[in-house]
Design brief:
With 191 residues, this protein is an alpha/beta fold. The chain has two domains: 70 residues, no CATH class; 91 residues, 3-Layer(aba) Sandwich (Rossmann fold), CATH 3.40.50. It is built from five helices and eight strands. The protein has a five-stranded parallel sheet with strand order 6-5-4-7-8, sandwiched between helices. The chain has a three-stranded parallel sheet with strand order 1-2-3, with no helix packed on it. It is elongated, with a radius of gyration of 22 Å. The termini are far apart. Pathway: Protein modification; protein glycosylation. One of its GO terms (biological process) is protein N-linked glycosylation. Belongs to the glycosyltransferase 18 family.
Length: 191
């Protein structure tokens, strides 16, 4: 019997002491087995990995206060004491860093990126930009994958941290603010 199965069988003995770190929170339909079984058809009809444990919703700690059902833990933003890649304001134009670490996140964002390219020196940390067959990365300084310290160094250099609509929340925008960059998140509407 796998260790996880043995552990799950023992949960009733100590479940009042369990706190589950859950990034985006858990609603009742994904926690309570009775609720899930009553609404199984509406919820997809398949098994539920979260149901059946029987934790109270306040035992789910979340980074964001999405729902009052869960306990809001929050998170700390660390701003390491690092030197910037370059001094803010030392270039001819303001510098921006686009929040999109994979090439697909830049798809269909040409309009906002063209405006950004016209107004700022655009930087990125896209892992797979070299494989992209689009011209979207022309006039973009891509730093590739960076360590947390190097990201902080880059955030201390840029004036703007530009979101591409998703994710709209998370530690990265708060880290940008902590390092002195303005966070702007574009809003896109489907036509």
């Amino acid at each position: 019997m796998p260790y996880s199965d043995k552990l799950l069988r023992r949960i009733p003995h100590f479940k009042c002491r369990i706190r589950l770190l859950d990034s985006f929170g858990t609603h009742i339909e994904f926690s309570d087995s009775d609720y899930y079984n009553k609404h199984k058809t509406e919820l997809g009809g398949k098994g539920n990995a979260y149901g059946g444990i029987g934790l109270q919703l306040l035992q789910h700690w979340t980074f964001f206060p999405h729902t009052p059902d869960n306990d809001f833990l929050g998170f700390a933003v660390h701003s390491p004491d690092v030197k910037p890649f370059f001094e803010r304001g030392s270039h001819e134009r303001p510098a921006s860093l686009v929040y999109g670490k994979a090439a697909y996140m830049w798809n269909n964002k040409d309009g906002v990126l063209d405006v950004l390219k016209n107004l700022t020196e655009v930087h990125a940390t896209v892992a797979d930009a070299a494989k992209s067959k689009t011209a979207i990365f022309v006039n973009v300084t891509n730093h590739g994958i960076l360590t947390g310290v190097n990201i902080a160094s880059l955030l201390k250099s840029v004036d703007i941290f530009m979101g591409l609509g998703f994710p709209i929340e998370g530690p990265a925008p708060l880290e940008a603010l902590a390092n002195g960059a303005v966070f702007i998140n574009a809003k896109f509407t489907r036509l």
